[in-house]
Design brief:
It comes from Salicibibacter cibarius. By secondary structure, the chain is an alpha+beta fold. 21% of the residues lie in helices and 34% in strands.
Length: 150
Amino acid sequence: MKQVNPYLNFDGNCEEAFTFYQSIFGGEPQLVRFNEMKDEMPGLDQLSKEDGEKIANIALPIGANTTLMGDDGKGVFGHGVTAGNMFMIEIEPESAEETDKLFNALSEGGEVKMPIAETTWAEKFGQCMDKYGVQWMFSYAGSKEKNLYD
């Protein structure tokens, strides 16, 4: 496995939270706002100006091999944030095969939130909740290995 990272979900205050985390851990966050991704994700052009300014993805290195990540997505898309659903474990497998194997094993008996599919930033991306209620996010960049923040 390439890397495992905590991924936090917020309801509009992601930037404020990461400013706080930066004051504690240091480092320089990299972020993308929803309005910067309109060409990559259908439906984003219909967001309000306020929601377009919210965080679509942010990454703050907090250790040699750990990045604290997050977004305002649950709030922007009306899913709401409550204790218990405000975090995911983000896994970056080393191969497409490992991605499928881990996703299938962790989603068995649980719930597929977003089936594994190709995106503009990853050959394979998906989300599931395991049978214990833990949320998982998978991102295998493969040939699309690039910096999302460029």
